[in-house]
Write a structure and sequence with these properties.
The complex is a heterodimer of chains A (131) and B (618). Chain A is α/β, with parallel strands linked by helices and 131 residues long. Chain A has one domain: Rossmann fold, CATH 3.40.50.2300. Helices cover 37% and strands 20% of the residues of chain A. A five-stranded parallel β-sheet of chain A has the order 2-1-3-4-5, with helices on both faces. In chain A, helix 3 links the parallel strand 3 and strand 4. In chain A, helix 2 packs parallel to helix 3. Chain B is an alpha/beta fold and 618 residues long. Chain B has four domains: 200 residues, Response regulator (Rossmann fold, 3-Layer(aba) Sandwich), CATH 3.40.50; 128 residues, Heat Shock Protein 90; 131 residues, Response regulator (Rossmann fold, 3-Layer(aba) Sandwich), CATH 3.40.50.2300; 113 residues, Rossmann fold (3-Layer(aba) Sandwich). Chain B contains 21 helices and 26 strands. A five-stranded parallel β-sheet of chain B has the order 2-1-3-6-7, sandwiched between helices. In chain B, strands 9-11-12-14-13 form a five-stranded mixed β-sheet. In chain B, strands 16-15-17-20-21 form a five-stranded parallel β-sheet, sandwiched between helices. In chain B, a hairpin with a 2-residue loop joins strand 18 and strand 19. The chains are: A alpha/beta (131), B alpha/beta (618). Chains A and B meet through helix 1 of A and helix 5 and helix 6 of B.
């Protein structure tokens, strides 16, 4: 069995920890966390996660900008990205999908079902790729 | 400092008087623009920044509250002062609720007072805006720590960190429940804020009320059990269809239900009933609670209104539920109210327009028989009705389609003079509707005009495709421009995209030609002949190599249905010309010509063809 790698990007340390524990409820998930978009670009290229869970509002490089940069690098361009957002403006979800995100999860989330929600966005091949 | 005033006033005498008086009273810096109807005001507000609006709500195209609503909708961020001859205290109150900052009565107020009112209105509006922005920011900022708190508590309650001793579990359950209540409160505040800023999108469709109510009851069953309350559904007949946004209507029913449950004593029943009237469907929610105190009745739909300050804590409510209900029902074109129930308790009712009633409005039956018939694809009934009324004045009949599916069915059954498409439709986007319409032979050349509230979306799709859209109008619609488009010869010839027959196998060239016209690409003489039989072309672009030997034979066949010669641009490997035929307007060699200069040549030929009349049969 191969681990499913989830890269979490959020500037709030507490949220990183809560998400980490929540995702840990799925035993196949291995989670790494980054505190900024810039860190995420490096980690994503090195670690090849199966999916990236990306906060929208971050200082310096926000979620959409991070996504755009991930798409520019051939090593990270194909990785599915799901936004995690505290904003709930009308049309926001559509807007993120049009940027190329696989989905949008809202904050606050239900910690007991977060892993299942994330799993639903994984491509069918996830968990079976070579390490 | 007020610099730009927009005066909306249909009485030219009053307008002149006001302008002169303002000048006499030292308002030299203020520039006053005067328009005499609402559609002109809406148009003006799209293009100009205004510091304050002064509105007389008795206009030829909008009256009373309707006028105030439209002015507010056209510029929700601009302060609005009503100036009217009508001294009606209840209208004044409603005007303020609909977004006006002040209500002044002509004859009772002097110019100095008007100037002061304008300044105060501006200040009030500025504070209101600051407050709204503050609410929006704070609500967002609250969600971040709440995410950590409710997430951690949720994990503990789910035993993700091991099982908990009972007393600890009890305290954590209290913390968890209350963190979720805080989340709901923040959501409600954001909803209210969004609705006031006009940022909430409503997607209208046909909704059967019965299953929707059943769904709301099922979702609240656990909540009701917590209070020891039963919920019963009484639905007279099936088929109570309304026109609504199902998600928003669900929010309305859920809020009414949870209120009724919270205020019911244990072991009592909440009864939900659905009744179908002639034009409306009426939904009632009856509780057996203590009833609404008399003093509180006028305040019940206000924000943060709660009969008893202790209620919020006791009942776990936010004080925003009914205010949200009221705002949603207003937007749905319905009505909400309440009454004391016989034998105690309260009955809330929501009345919504029946689908049948709305559907019966779809066909314009009151227009003159000779009127040209238009199809308007628009999901907002009020907008559609207003536009129909305006179009009727200039001699058009307007049918409505509330969805892309409707529009396609209507278009297939009736031959319309022109079609107006809103890009955002509940069941799909306008662009794909246009694609489907264009595939119908009778609508290949019909004028299609896009009407959109979204100034950015889809424009590129239109430009780069062969949809042949006559124009793109932003909401609110510039009515004069619309009429110009509908009546002018524009609609048929001048703006029609040229049609180009492209005899070649080169995809890049085909795509480039697609920028300037509708292109039919064929790669054999036989296909070219077939295309010529079924369509008229304005120009042909020919690769002679492909048409080798047959090329010269094809030339005489390049004529439109009237027998006019179709001019030809040859674009081939060697640039070989087909003799000095006058029909061939240019011969370009692929090796020496960039795509851009080919396009320039084609454009040039098309332009000269459009100005001189087409060539006669020799």
């Amino acid at each position: 069995m191969t681990d499913i790698r989830i890269l979490l990007v959020d500037d709030e340390p507490d949220i990183r920890e809560v998400v980490d524990v929540s995702l840990g409820l799925d035993r196949e998930f291995r989670t790494r966390a980054c505190a900024s978009g810039a860190d995420a670009l490096v980690t994503a290229a090195e670690w090849s996660p199966s999916l990236i869970l990306l906060d929208v509002m971050m200082p310096l490089m926000d979620g959409p900008a991070t996504l755009a940069n991930l798409r520019k690098n051939p090593r990270t361009a194909h990785i599915p990205v799901v936004f995690l957002t505290a904003r709930t403006q009308a049309g926001e979800i559509e807007q993120y999908i049009s940027l190329g995100a696989q989905g949008v999860l809202s904050k606050p989330f239900d910690p007991m079902t977060l892993a299942a929600s994330v799993r639903s966005y994984l491509p069918p091949s996830a968990g079976h790729h070579a390490p | 400092m007020i610099k730009a005033i927009l005066l909306i006033e249909d009485n030219p005498g009053d307008a002149r008087l006001l302008r002169e008086m303002l000048k006499d009273h030292g308002a030299h810096d203020a520039e006053m623009t005067h328009v005499d109807c609402m559609s002109a005001a809406e148009k003006y507000l799209v293009e100009h920044a205004v510091d304050v609006i002064l509105l007389d709500p008795g206009l030829p195209d909008a009256q009373g509250l309707g006028a105030i609503r439209r002015a507010h909708a056209a510029a929700p961020r601009v302060p609005l002062v009503v100036l009217t001859a009508l001294d009606d205290e209840s209208l004044a109150e409603q005007a303020l609720q609909e977004g006006a900052q002040d209500y002044l009565i002509k004859g009772q107020i002097e110019v100095r007072g008007i100037l002061r009112a304008l300044r105060y209105a501006t200040e009030r509006k500025r504070l209101e805006r600051l407050k709204d922005e503050f609410v929006s920011t704070v609500s967002h900022e609250l969600r971040t720590p709440l995410t950590s708190i409710s997430g951690s508590l949720g994990l503990l309650m789910g035993n993700a960190a091991g099982s908990l001793p009972k007393p600890m579990a009890r305290l954590l359950a209290i913390a968890h429940t209350n963190s979720q209540r805080l989340v709901r409160l923040v959501d409600d505040i954001l909803d209210i804020e969004k609705m006031q800023a006009g940022g909430m999108v409503f997607n209208f469709s046909r909704v059967d009320v019965r299953p929707l109510v059943a769904q709301a009851i099922a979702a609240n069953r656990g909540f009701a059990e917590g209070y020891g309350v039963r919920v019963r559904l009484e639905a007279a007949r099936a088929g109570a269809d309304v026109r609504a946004d199902p998600d928003r209507l669900l929010q309305v029913v859920t809020n009414l239900l949870s209120n009724a449950i919270k205020f019911s004593p244990a072991d009592h029943e909440v009864v939900v009933a659905i009744e179908k009237g002639a034009d409306t469907v009426r939904l009632t929610v009856r509780d057996h609670g203590p009833g609404i105190p008399v003093d509180f009745k006028p305040l019940i739909f206000e924000k943060f209104a709660q009969a008893d300050a202790g209620d919020a804590r006791q009942k776990g409510g936010t004080g925003l539920g009914l205010s949200i209900v009221k705002q949603i029902v207003d937007r749905l074109g319905g009505e909400v109210g309440f009454a004391d129930a016989p034998g105690g308790g309260t009955i809330f009712h929501v009345q919504l327009p029946c689908w049948d009633h709305v559907a019966s409005l779809a066909i314009d039956r009151d227009a003159k028989p000779e009127a040209l018939r238009l199809l308007l694809c628009e999901d907002d009934l009020d907008t559609a009705l207003t536009l129909r009324e305006q179009l009727r004045q200039v001699g058009f009949a307007t049918d409505f389609a509330y969805s892309a599916g409707d529009a396609f069915t209507c278009a297939a059954a009736t031959r319309y003079h022109a079609i107006l498409v809103d890009i955002q439709l509940p069941d799909g986007d306008g662009i794909s509707l246009i694609v489907r319409l264009r595939a119908l032979p009778q609508y290949r050349d019909t004028s299609i005009i896009v009407v959109s509230a979204d100034t950015s979306r889809g424009r590129d799709d239109l430009r780069s495709s062969k949809l042949n859209v006559l124009d793109w109008l932003n909401k609110p619609v510039d009515f004069d421009r619309l009429v110009q488009l509908l009546v002018g010869p524009v609609a048929h010839e001048v703006n029609r995209r040229p049609r180009i027959l492209h005899v070649d196998e080169d995809n890049i060239v085909a795509r480039a030609l697609g920028e300037i016209g509708d292109v039919v690409t064929v790669n054999s003489i036989a296909e070219a002949r077939r295309a010529l039989k079924t369509s008229d072309f304005d120009l042909a672009v020919l690769d002679v190599a492909l048409a080798k030997g047959v090329g010269p034979n094809l030339l005489p066949e390049l004529r439109d249905s009237k027998g006019n010669v179709i001019p030809v641009v040859v674009f081939s490997a060697d640039g070989a010309n087909l003799a000095s035929d006058t029909q061939v307007q240019a011969a370009l060699a692929k090796s020496h010509t960039s795509i851009d200069s080919l396009i320039a040549t084609v454009r040039d030929r098309l332009a000269s063809r459009a100005t001189s009349s087409s060539q006669e049969v020799p």
